[in-house]
């Protein structure tokens, strides 16, 4: 299995009630689908990492909302819902000298695969790797 490169949008929001909802509503109103999301907090600022179906168009929504954001290249991998699947992917990257800086993923019971979003130090090498199915 091959990884696919995409762009993650990292949005910086005030850490207060309603900020995530407001941004999600704006994306919904623009008919954009969130494929994956992670929110990490600090005392004052939260970082919302999102993968969207159309990240280019999402930038327009973010500019209109006057929120700070950056685009980050990431890998998306379909991960089998089986014991050792993450270990095999991590080992494949480690063997090639690719460092995983962070990853987020989840799977629903009964689904055969999940979507893993990986930020790595060497995206070009990671894209060339063949990952176990």
Could you characterize the architecture of this molecule?
This protein has a 6-stranded antiparallel beta sheet. The protein starts with a strand and ends in a 5-residue tail after the last helix. The chain has 2 domains: 64 residues, VC0802-like (2-Layer Sandwich); 55 residues, ACT domain (Alpha-Beta Plaits). The protein is α+β, with helices and mostly antiparallel strands and 133 residues long.
Question: What is CATH's topology name of the largest domain?
Answer: VC0802-like
Strand content: 35-45%
Could you give me the name of the CATH homologous superfamily of the largest domain?
VC0802-like
Task: Give me the oligomer status.
Answer: single chain
Helix content: 25-40%
- Largest sheet, spatial ordering of strands: 2-3-1-4-6-5
Count of domain modules: 2
Low-confidence stretches: none
Overall average pLDDT: 92
Radius of gyration: 16 Å
What is the CATH domain class of the largest domain?
Alpha Beta
Number of strands: 6
Structural class: alpha+beta
**CATH architecture name of the largest domain:** 2-Layer Sandwich
Distance between the termini: 6 Å
- Please summarize the sheet with the most strands: 6 strands, antiparallel
Order of helices and strands: EHEEHEHEEH
How many helices?
4
């Amino acid at each position: 299995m091959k990884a696919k490169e995409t762009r993650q949008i990292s949005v910086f929001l005030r850490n207060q009630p309603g900020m995530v909802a407001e941004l999600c509503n704006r994306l919904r109103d623009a008919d954009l689908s969130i494929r994956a999301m992670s929110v990490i907090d600090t005392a004052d600022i939260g970082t919302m990492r999102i993968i969207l179906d159309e990240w280019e168009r999402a930038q327009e929504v973010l500019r209109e909302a006057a929120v700070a954001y950056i685009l980050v290249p990431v890998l998306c991998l379909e991960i089998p819902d089986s014991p050792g699947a993450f270990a095999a992917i991590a080992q494949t990257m480690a063997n090639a000298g690719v460092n995983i800086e962070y990853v987020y993923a989840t799977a629903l019971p009964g689904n055969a695969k999940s979507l893993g979003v990986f930020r790595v130090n060497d995206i070009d090498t990671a894209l060339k790797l063949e990952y176990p199915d």
